[in-house]
What does this fold into?
Amino acid sequence: MKSFRGFIIKEFYHIFRDKRTMLILFGMPVIQLILFGFAIRNEVNDARIAILDQSNDYMTQELTQKIVSSGYFILVEQLKPGGDIESVFKQNRVKEVIVFEPHFAQRLLRENKAAVQIIADATEPNMANLLINYTSSIIRDYQAGLRGQAGSPVQINPEVKMLYNPELKSVYLFVPGLIALLLMLVSALMTSITIAREKELGTMEILLVSPLKPAQIIIGKVIPYLFLSFVNTSTILLLARYVFGVPFHGSYGFFFFEAFLFVVTALSLGIMISTIADSQQTAMMFSLAGLMLPVIILSGFIFPVSSMPVVLQIISHIVPAKWFLIIVKGIMLKGAGIEYLWKETLILGGMMLFLISVSVKKFKIRLQ
Amino acid sequence: MNAVTVNDLTKTYGKITAINRLNFTVNKGELFGFIGPDGAGKTTLFRILTTLLLPDGGSANVIGLDAVKDFKKLRPQIGYMPGRFSLYQDLTVQENLAFFATVFGTTIEENYDLIKDIYVQIEPFKNRRAGKLSGGMKQKLALSCALIHKPEILFLDEPTTGVDAVSRQEFWEMLKRLQAKDITIIVSTPYMDEASLCDRVALIQNGNILGIDTPENIVRDFDRPILAVKSSNMYGLLTSLKTFPNVHSVFPFGEFLHYTDRRGKFEPQEITHYLTQLGIQNIETAWTQPTIEDSFMALMEQHA
It folds into this structure.
């Protein structure tokens, strides 16, 4: 036990004395989160729009005011009735045009229905989709308030509701994905590199000849990174909460338990990689190509799994990050507990046990 | 009892035979040397004896334990210093030593008397990172680390490669002192001059042992007279001597060439006369005693 403790202390020395390791461990999570959080956004701010108001009554003025003050839109042009809508699009002056029909307020009050046309520039489909969603939700909102005042029912449009993320904030999606990505990266990449380094420098020969058992070497390598992963997870959660305002509705204890399962899974993957890689470079290549891409592409981090071809959907089932992502989203955004997430937890736990036993078994007690 | 008994030991990598049916024994308390060029199979042999590699055939018994079956019992009792510098470069001298001590379940204090002679020389640098040590100091630290758990047998794979001449000399003196403390030492080296410092040596080439004996006996077996030849143009001398009709061998040895003749005995005048004809000037010749290097060169020539 004493020799095992000595081994772990040595691992911490390695980590704290290597500037590169420290940078990857602690610099990367912060930089990635900030980059992803600020730079890669699916939501829209300050989109340029134009309004063609054929009615110009108090209601359309109020609506225009509401749309402009939402922060999503900048009104760059008031089109005149009979104005050329297509040309403003062609000149790329606006992304969206809102058209109110004549006698808007009059019709809404007398006939209980009125029409608004929302035209968006669909050369950027995602953007158009978002703009239309924003606009219609503002209009619905206005209309809901109107009914209360008027007393008589007005036309109610089919309600589209954005659960959990009503403003379609992409950072809500990126934070859980980033937690998965960073934990996978730090854990798998770092363990595979640290074991490969012992091979490269020849110190593995001495460790193998020593009375340390293979399991002790493995666990000794893993414990420091397990500990540091939790420091990282906490950092990301703090950044998410206070820099990006992502809510955390669930239980922290349950969250860290799930993170533990996922980190150990990733660490085992790192050990498996190190059993095939002889040098730090190979270990890094294997980790990046073999782990990063599945986490980014197949976990649902960036692209929804449900819209992938069936083959990729099947493959995504064996990506641990996919299950972890479902769990993290459930805990953070929906406040779900074990009663909703037991199935995913079981799958993740099973993957963890399988990978640990394989990696311990594959760990070579001799040289090749 | 033998410290090491090896029977028909074989290891192949694909089509390449690294070591080929080796047979030898090492006595308890002996300082035994394996001498041979790079790629002779020394490291492979050491890795099998230290349980790090599985042989393809034959058996190896180290201090009464089988190197394959009893590897768990054997590992804590051997000290191994691999050929490459195998310490943690980012740990200090002190931390490296303390680490290997705890890993082997002991402390620096407990076995300090064993490493004291060696360690006092690097102790002034104990807070320096191992990566920043000179070659000789690294060697001393590696030896201290291999010794810290008081092993019964010590395997040193090319410990003096890349170390300056003074440090090499000191290193061998340390080995002699360790031997006096009842530790069996098996060492490999590409430097033939180090062979004479061992109790017994085995010459190994291309995975085969060419001869095993004490350095004295190996030299005694060399029966040809050797003429040391020198001139102002050593390269011309070497190429010219090789064209002499009765040449047996010519090897450079320091500032001389060592010449042996096919006929055994010969007159130095024949050589000087022949060389003068070829335009070699300032020729000096002298009879010389064979060294262990002459014997090895002859043995390697025979088996080439």
Summary: The radius of gyration of chain A is 27 Å. The first strand of chain A starts at residue 47 and ends at 53.
